[in-house]
Amino acid sequence: MTQKLYETDSYVQTFTAQVLACTPVQGGFAVVLDRTAFFPEGGGQPCDTGTLGAACVLAVHTDGATITHTTDAPLTVGGTVEGCIDWPARLDAMQQHTGEHILSGTLHRLFGAENVGFHIGTPYVRMDTSIPLSAAQLAQAEAEANAAVRADTPVRCWVPDPETLAHTEYRSKKALDGDVRLVEAGGDCCACCGTHLAHTGEVGLIKIISYAHYKSGMRLAVACGQRAYDAVAGIWADTEAAGRLLSSPVGSLAPALERLQNGETALKARLAALQNTLADAYAAAAEPGQPSVLWVDGADGDGLRRVAMSITAKTGAACCTLAPGGQGLAYALASAPGGDLRETCKALNAAYQGRGGGKPGFCQGSLASGSFEQVKDFLLNTL
Predict the structure, then answer these.
(1) Which of 57, 223, 225, 252 has the least CB density, counted as fewest CB within 10 Å?
(2) Would you say 274 and 296 are in contact if contact means Cβ atoms under 8 Å apart?
(3) Is-contact 329 321, C-beta < 8 A?
(4) What is the pLDDT of residues 20-50, one digit of tens each?
(5) Which alpha helices (H) appear in the chain, and where do they start and end?
(6) What burial class does residue 27 get, using C-beta atoms within 10 Å of its C-beta: 0-12 exposed, 13-18 middle, 19+ buried?
């Protein structure tokens, strides 16, 4: 059984150990030591990486008793080797894991929410709860969790004797047999095998970045410690940049955005009215019964559609309208009553590196190559 140095002192960064086994495996060498500070992947926490002597540790796994290190070079069996873990990565994992304990415990205490999923990913920690939670509930839990961080109380990790365990209330995702390692942080007690900080204050900050309904509960993206600082700094920079564009200070962006949206809605309505007028003018000048291909400069996709449909309704013949847009030229194809332009659309796309499609009576897309005259000749010959 490998002695797990990280369970008694998660701040051990370097250590010496005896090499018990070294076996070639796919992707490197499987190394077993008599003792290690490398945490193996498990419980939602990624494994440590670092070095064993001159060899790089690529991955660490365990079967519960033996811990196996995958290295990129062999080690001498029976020899002594110095191990060094990637401390910044370990510290980050400890911040995320301890912060998750505090937040999960707070959600459980306030609302009875169970933590049913946890993974320290990049760039955020994923947390799944057993029940749905409102934005107000999440904000309350976040505030109280950060109060526990600021209290800077000790984090305790221990394995109680069976009698003590039987009388101890703790959270666990599943029923456990035998020795159970408990972690107490910020007033919460939870069964856990991971590495944790010595005091809650070292978490620094807990921030819920996003949340969404997932299965019967919620899926949260959470950042703690340096990750939380980086996330908040990034959000603040984006908010300030948006404020400069809107000529509005941070804290007043919502009203500014509402004014912008209202103005955009009004402009869209005015544009639609103008494009209807334009469509009527083109239709009035169209020759009945004759397919047409027209250049409608300044029209957007909706304008091209309106003009093409109006001309087809007036002439009873197929019509294509084109304007700058998309990859080069934007187009709208309207068929005569009962017609089907899908094959024509495919041929047009194939001839001029286009993308688009639609229904039998109407197709729309854009072309990356071809001039208006080339496209016009192609379509008049096809239509």
Answers:
(1) 252
(2) no
(3) no
(4) 999 999 999 999 999 999 999 998 999 999 9
(5) 5-8, 87-111, 135-151, 162-166, 225-246, 253-285, 301-315, 342-351, 372-382
(6) exposed
